[in-house]
Amino acid sequence: MSPAVDQELGERILFASKVMVNILVEALIGAKVQGLSAPQYRVLDMIYNGVDKPAELARMLDISPPAISSILSKLEEGGFMDRGHIKEDRRRVVLKLTGMGKDVVRRVNTRRRKLINAMLDKMDEQEIRQLETSLEAFTSSYLQIKGEERAGDHA
């Protein structure tokens, strides 16, 4: 791929990521979620999807332990999640969404899906198939890079 095409494609991907952030922000507003930033919501969504260790969140988001601790404190103060311990290892902190936290994730993701579906409705079948194929390749590439990074961390 030529550098000019590579740069143009990179810019298109960055713009698409901005669209996805806008969809998230619109969904937060539409779901009437007050005082929750997009990064805080991302953490809630990750916990909702099974990530329950602060260190794992920090690693996945590529942020420092103090930064994730600060985000978690704000989420806990807002009543969205709790930190607890497991009986087998009292030193290990586990994260759990409260009922309100689960409700927020469900409502926001419902609104996100609605906005995305409205966009897909504007596309024809061929464009949708191309998008599916491209997203699969893009996601696979990202996961491969992350897997290589983790393998390098253990070496």
Would you summarize the structure shown here?
By secondary structure, the protein is mostly helical.
Strand and helix map with partners:
Blueprint: H1 3-30, H2 38-48, H3 54-61, H4 65-77, E1 81-86, E2 89-97, H5 99-120, H6 125-154
Antiparallel strand pairs: 1-2
Helix pairs in contact: 1-5, 2-4, 3-4
The largest sheet is:
2 strands, antiparallel
Any guess at the CATH architecture of the largest domain? Orthogonal Bundle
- Strand fraction equals 5-15%
Enumerate how many helices there are, as a single number: 6
Helix content: over 70%
If you had to describe this structure to a student in words, what would you say it looks like?
The chain has helices at 3-30, 38-48, 54-61, 65-77, 99-120, 125-154, and strands spanning 81-86, 89-97. With 155 residues, the chain is mainly alpha-helical. It folds into two domains: 3-122, Winged helix-like DNA-binding domain superfamily/Winged helix DNA-binding domain (Arc Repressor Mutant, subunit A, Orthogonal Bundle), CATH 1.10.10; 124-155. It has a two-stranded antiparallel sheet with strand order 1-2. The two termini are 32 Å apart. 12% of the residues are buried.
